[in-house]
Design goal:
Number of strands: 21
Structural class: alpha/beta
Oligomer: single chain
Helix content: 25-40%
Strand content: 25-35%
Distance between the termini: 20 Å
Shape: globular
Length: 368
């Protein structure tokens, strides 16, 4: 069955198309054609002039739908988290875990393996291989230095579900970086006090991106520009940033965008309120904190991040949408998401003029 979306402004990830019809068939984009080329037996959806964009991609999100997954890992919690994330417009995400006990990781690997979902791209371990000086909201007693033996065992237990890891380059050997790279894990530098040279060494040895730029890392200092400076001056490293106006001031956001261009992309780093267990997140009006007030996570969805960047970050709508879709897809090395083109997955969002979410498609199916 072919479905046509008519009367839409189509943002493909690279260009804006008007007076075209988007054809979907078998979970994929079949083509973009003129309205008079739509087959006669096609099911038609009238977009009423709204914007159709690639579905959002979030490489760092901890929970949704009332669940912080690591606090109570189960199949039911994973389903609730995934359903809520997809309904919010994010059609590809990485389920993220803070520095934790090894048995939480192992249990979570098993649950994710047993409950595949087309929106769930894998697991992102934010930790435990950090510099304790930049631990942020993570539990200091669980932070440690990585060994090749432990990382190899972790990869084996993950069974292919471990897709991304945030670590501090200054505590990680080249052997461990090679091991992770050889297994296809996206390595991100974060929770790090790395000098400029240590960060650049990491970028030359498999580190592909930086986690929540400016947060929990060495500062941009005029005598050693640290991890932010290395990200700015790298010719290939990406960096994620949280577009909530809380984790990063909008002036710092604008500077980073000017320096990094298409290498800067959005994450939400969103958590859920939890008032018991090892990680307690207290909901404030515009953020989550630990009980002691330490900033611990955002409360935005990706579409809210897009709106924020357009309103406060001096970013065009096209570019904000790329930061939420195309650029994280590039970090993943994925060519069939983050864009609208023939044979790409039909993961789509529909937005009105106020950038409010109106519809979500996951592999061609409207999500209710």
């Amino acid at each position: 069955m072919i479905t046509a979306i008519n009367n839409a402004t189509i943002f493909t990830g690279e260009q804006v198309l008007q007076e075209q019809s988007l054809l979907i068939s078998n979970e994929r984009i079949l083509d973009i054609v003129s309205p008079d080329a739509v087959p006669a037996d096609t099911s038609v959806i009238d977009a009423s002039g709204h914007l159709i964009s690639p579905g959002f991609i979030d490489l760092q999100i901890y929970g949704a739908g009332g669940y912080l997954f690591s606090n109570e890992p189960s199949g039911a919690a994973l389903q609730a988290v995934t359903n809520a994330i997809v309904r919010s417009g994010t059609t590809t995400y990485m389920l993220t875990f803070a520095t934790n006990e090894m048995d939480i990781y192992l249990k979570s690997f098993e649950i994710v393996q047993q409950n595949p979902h087309p929106a769930l791209a894998g697991i992102h371990l934010e930790g435990p291989y950090f510099n304790p000086q930049k631990r942020g909201a993570h539990i200091e007693g669980l932070i440690r230095r990585p060994t090749a033996q432990e990382v190899n065992a972790l990869l084996g237990d993950a069974g292919g579900t471990l897709k991304m890891m945030t670590l501090a380059p200054e505590v990680t050997s080249d052997e461990v970086l090679r091991l992770l790279s050889d297994h296809g894990v996206i390595i991100s530098a974060g929770h790090s006090n790395a000098t400029f040279s240590q960060a650049m060494h990491g970028f030359a040895n498999g580190i592909r991106t930086v986690t929540h730029l400016f947060n929990a890392m060495s500062p941009l200092h005029h005598r050693d520009t640290g991890l932010p400076g290395a990200a700015f001056l790298s010719d290939h490293a990406y960096a994620s940033i949280i577009p909530d106006g809380v984790h990063v001031d909008w002036q710092a956001f604008k500077i980073a965008k000017q320096m990094m261009g298409r290498r800067l992309f959005f994450i939400t780093d969103a958590v859920q309120e939890v008032l018991q267990g090892p990680y307690m997140h207290v909901r404030k009006p515009d953020r989550y904190t630990l009980p002691d007030g330490t900033l611990s996570g955002s409360c935005i969805t990706m579409v809210e991040g897009v709106r924020n960047a357009v309103r406060y970050g001096a970013v065009t709508l096209d570019e904000a949408l790329r930061m939420a879709s195309l650029y994280p897809a590039e970090v993943m090395g994925a060519t069939d998401i983050g864009r609208i083109r023939k044979d790409a997955k039909a993961n789509l969002v529909m937005l009105n003029e106020e950038l409010e979410l109106k519809k979500v498609w996951l592999e061609g199916e409207i999500q209710e």
